[in-house]
Amino acid sequence: MKNILLIVLSFFVLVNLSLANNSIESAKKEKIPINITSNKLIAQENIGLYTFIGNVVAKRKDATLYADKMDVYKDKNTGDVSKIVCIGNVVITQPNKLAKANEGIYELKDQKITLIGNAYVKSDKNVIKSDMIVYYLDKKYAVAQGSKNERVDVTIYPNKKQTSSQTKEKK
Q: Transmembrane residues, as ranges (predicted)?
């Protein structure tokens, strides 16, 4: 069971990073407790798969993940988490930040988070909507991909800070 907590800790690295808040190393060092609730847990240690089913709610610090189902995969050789897949009504929240999708995948080896199907990311007022959003953690960049029927839709609001030239213009 303590392996499950380690696995879920890794998931919250996903939560924090998907909202561009923390690095993997700082999340590992913090050792902040995680609380997960679901209607059912199936722990298949022999194949390295932990499945949380039904109204999954995972909380760590100020981040909360909601999903219908969450599969956590462990590498058979190292015992480390290799991939986390959340399916159905995936929502990740933090103060002033929100991410939603039909499916969310965190691949640790590739340092990649993929939000698939009605992907939506909001930070303060700024919004990205797309069929798929991929965030590369180690390179700190994202790619949003539209579909045949829907293009990428981005809304960016200007910063509230005034530059020195804007201040001079007002005088």
A: none
Tens of pLDDT along the chain (171 residues) come to 444 434 444 444 444 444 444 444 454 456 676 678 999 999 998 999 999 999 999 888 888 889 999 998 888 888 787 888 999 999 988 888 899 999 999 888 888 889 999 999 998 899 999 999 998 888 888 899 999 888 999 999 888 765 555 555 555
Residues whose CB is less than 8 angstroms from the CB of residue 119 and which lie 6 or more positions away in sequence, other chains included: 99, 100, 101, 128, 129, 130, 131, 132, 133, 144
| Residue whose structure tokens are 């990073």 | 17
- CA of 146: how far to CAs of 76, 85, 116, 118, in Å? 35, 21, 10, 10
Instruction: Classify 2-170 by CATH class.
Output: mainly beta
